[in-house]
Amino acid sequence: MLKTEALSIGYHEKIIVKGLDISIPRGKMTALVGANGSGKSTILKAMARLLKPKSGHVYLDGKQIYKQSTKEVAKTLAILPQNPIAPEGLTVAELVTYGRAPHQNGFGSLTKGDKKMIHWAIEMTGMYDFALRPIDQLSGGQRQRAWIAMALAQDTEVLFLDEPTTFLDMAHQLEVLNVLQKMHREEKRTVVMVVHDLNHASRYAHHIIGIKDGHVVKTGTPKEVMTQNVLENIFGIKSDIIYDPRNGQPLCLPYALSTEERNESTESL
Predict the structure, then answer these.
(1) Which pTM was predicted?
(2) Which residues contact 52 (CB under 8 A, 6 or more apart)?
(3) What is the CB neighbour count within 10 angstroms for residue 231?
(4) What DSSP character marks residue 108?
(5) Residue 215's closest CA among 2, 32, 64?
(6) pLDDT of 260 above 90
(7) In contact, 134 and 143? CB cutoff 8 Å
(8) Enclosing H/E stretch for 175
(9) What is the per-residue pLDDT across 225-249, written as a single tens digit (0 to 9) for each?
(10) How far apart (Å, rounded) are the C-alpha atoms in residues 205 and 263?
(11) Which run of H or E residues covers position 261?
(12) Tens digits of per-residue pLDDT, 22-35?
């Protein structure tokens, strides 16, 4: 459904990603993982049509995404960027209403179908009790859920999220990720997210794409990607891999940088 072909992306004259070929499985949760500056967010923006590639193509349902109209793409694909900011005083319900924009003509009023979708998105994210509360009066986790509700109201098959748990504490991280997991289970949407926490990626994603310096190192299930050798290649860390007794998924326990271990070995000589 969604794939890149020989995709090269950059800013000004600097190329960040070169010759990228990846496919996103339909109806699954996919996590992009990699070190800071590896190109994860850049890839997400290019696939979501927010950043025009230097060369190559992004295909959505077999069509080149950059040859489709913005409105056409917005009916199939929604993106939640890092740290979105709402106008002061805007309520949750008002924010979620903006998700219906791609389905409206001009400045037309909300239809019965629009209102039904807005109500569903607010319910799905557990924000019903906060619907009339201003966004700036919510906790970090609640704010993220409100933004996810807006993206859900857009009613797209594909949802992109760029580091949806950044700057949230552990409880709020789980709050947001559980909402995404619930949405996927009940709606079978395709979710693509940039994730920093490897163990979150392993727990919530069906498919992981490991990125290093703008190139794909490994793709596959959590068990295929979360190995000592792959993680050392991507992140430059030594780690132990254990398995979660709740679901059998791998968990990463890093204990040293690869360079540190080599330096210690050299010093001992």
Answers:
(1) 0.90
(2) 46, 66
(3) 23
(4) P
(5) 32
(6) no
(7) no
(8) helix 170-187
(9) 999 999 999 999 999 999 999 999 9
(10) 35
(11) helix 258-268
(12) 999 999 999 999 99
